[in-house]
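Forwarding the complex inputs:
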Amino acid sequence: MTSPMKIAFLITSFFLFSCTSDEIKKNQSKEFSSIYKNLLKSKKLEEIQENSLARTKKDSTWLSRFNQPIVMISSENEKVQATLVALGNNGEKLTWVSSDGISLSYHNGILIATRGFSQDLISLNHPKLKKPFKHINKSYFKTHRFLDSTNQYEDITFTCMLKKKPTVSLSILNYKVSTDKVIERCDSNFQSYNNIYYLLAGTDIVLKSKQWISPANKSFFTYNFYAFQQN
Amino acid sequence: MVENIEAKTKYLEKFNVYESTDILNNFGMPGSLDTPTAQSFPDGQFSISSSVFGGSIRVNLSFQITESLTGAFRYSRIPSSSGDYRGYYWDRSFDVHYLAYKESKYIPSIAIGLRDFIGTGIYAGEYVVATKSFNNKLKLSGGIGWGRLSGKNSFSNIFGLGNQRSSADVGRGGTAHLNRLFSGKNSPFLSAAYNFSENIDLIAELSSDPYIHETSSIKGMSRETDLNFGFKYKFAPSLTLTGMIMHGNAIGLTGSMAINPKNAPYKSGLEPAPMPILIGEAKISDTEKIIDATQRLLELDGIQLIDLEFQDSAVEIYLVDRNYYNVAQMIGRVSRIISKTLPKKYKIFNIYIFDHHSGFLISEIEIDRKSLMENELLFDGPDNLWKNVNVKNTAKKKSYYGSSNFSPLTWSFYPYLDVMLFDPHAPIRWHIGLEAKARYRMMKYTDISGSLKQPLAGTMDDIKRGPKEGLPNVRSDFMYYHRDIGSKVFVDNLTLNQFFKPFPNIFAQVNLGYLEMMYAGIRSEIIWKDSDKPYGIGLDLAKVRKRATEANFRLKSDAHSIYLASFYYDLPHKWNLKIDGGKYLAGDYGSTVSVARNFNNGWEIGAFATLTDVKFSTFGEGSFDKGITLKVPLHWLTGKKSKYSRSTVIRPISGDGGATLYLSDEKYLYNNIKAYDENSFQSNWKRVYR
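Prediction (whole assembly, two chains):
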């Protein structure tokens, strides 16, 4: 029907000039082509590179550059790290936001919600949020709530217990701090995890923690650097 | 503790397997190789499989319609000495399989199934089968088959329905032959599946299928034994390859893939975190600055602010949302942003949403600011907030036309792909080309829109068959259009569109001009839809004339009309029903029933059938118009916000009975209006704080 030259010319011009005045349509096409590109790429995830913050030495001089309260989160292998600033304050609940669109909400140091992960912790049912570290060696139930792919809740209820190791030395920034190490062991039929909290000795102030989000996103560390900030 | 156990059980069920391709047989249904087993796929699984052996090719689409009911649609090449196309039949068939009892400790699972019950009947057969598993290592299945499954080792009908299978007049295919189900002699079949290793199952089966057509042709196979042997290699839950030796003669392969709309690759999505709620007084008080800040923050979340109007203690926010399929998530983000930018005295947020295509102001959502804040991080926050939310149709008359955020002209250049299935001379026909689209909004509710197409390459202009006989050729002569258009640029559509909304719950449009490749004229649609009702009513009327086969601006003299009334109903569990009734293009009277399962995430899988007063024999191949519909949302695949989805209709070549106009989805108002009704907000309200 059409000469091969004409087809080649038209297809080439299509790839060169395929366009729209509509930003939303443009994004849709971009997203569609990214699906095909991802399919063509190897399925194996590339080795995660250490990001620049992970390579940076974190000390009090570094911290003094921040003129607002920050926390730092870190992957379990400490290779990916990000700083977050407090943007939300709803009663006793604080929400910290990173520049790449992740937010974490804490209530007295306990992670109660995440946003921006693939399997976010939508909410947490914790019976002792007022005094989370008071009841050592007593079991309690805790429910992590997620959303499934059809916008319904997916709840996992854990049986948890706290154990406390007093006077553990914690290296944070360039300080050595005496802390109480609290380990929260949580089990369900399908998932188990250990959350670890380093509390400033004799207080309920969490300086560092490792907390579990979800089956897909696992655990990460939180460094509450704001406890060391002057302003 | 009881509550805890319940939660765990719920978790177990929900975290079940989503894809399982190692239980597909050569027909794309639960089974071993050719024989069925009493199993079912995970609920919602959509499978595509193809098997090739002994000259036969089967391409199967199957869908786990409910937890117990499986359906399949198949297109097969069957070698036969009487084959009507180069020694083969190209044949469509439908199967259903119902798992009546799930295996317990001592009792096997039991299933009943119908193969090819509305096709030409080449594969027609029925079965009852039982399956028992032993230590998750061995699965034994045994059953009795009728029809094609009673070809070998048969004995008297166990139901006393006689040993002579009732004949069925298959005619042009497409009709159900219920009278002969489970009639005639019956035969046993058996299968065993041994789980050799994590990824490999070894299969042996005794099949009663006589393969009469296939063994009658040199293009087919010979049948040396009743036994089939094979293995299934599971690369992943969603991909299995089966190798087999069929009846001691033919080596075969089956590839099976599956996807489950309930198992999104990015779980609950990758959208960046929303604006957190900050208790305290907003820093800005100047109205202009508030509007600027609100607009900027909304834009970051992909939402267009059209207007912001301040009342005493309430604020009215007018928006266009073109990005969020989950409308509750969009409302949550809007509410968070304005709770940040607006002074405390505004206690009620009234959010008004425009439909971008029509320009209608569709719904009003009232959010209580205090409730929004109090529930932000609570365990049952979304459910508590919903109690204070009010969604209704709005009587407001605003338009987005004239807003600085609205551009009256939009255009695009993109490729297009047209696909036509099931032409016996070439099962898949296609055409690619370039399409230029433009739309200009001249007034508040008036626009002109059009599309020019340049075909580049393909096979649609080479269709050998001619139009059907017996009815006015309203659709079945489509091949003349492709032939005469050839490689020329043509006007696919060019219409003047006027939208009306005389009452809060009445929405209407008139389209005038070149409506589609084959028709020009005037069409109007009127929809009644109350936001708080799960149903709506529509009228679709058109007076049209055939376009010249070159699809230029000339018209032919043939005039036709359509008068259709539609009833839409959102059934429980996200099943959607639509019933149309009235007069179709060829002047025939009848009704279309469409049913679709919606997965509450944009995925929709459905089927439709149109029966009119046209006789099956007059309609021709397939006997009546029917098809399978599939809608896949982009956001499910990428995890990022998007309203866009790709729709596909799998249907036989169009006949003239039950024909309507071919218009793009956006030309039908109902779904655009329904996107913002109470049900749509409620069904994804759990995402309001996401």
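Chain B touches chain A through 72 residues (CB under 8 Å).
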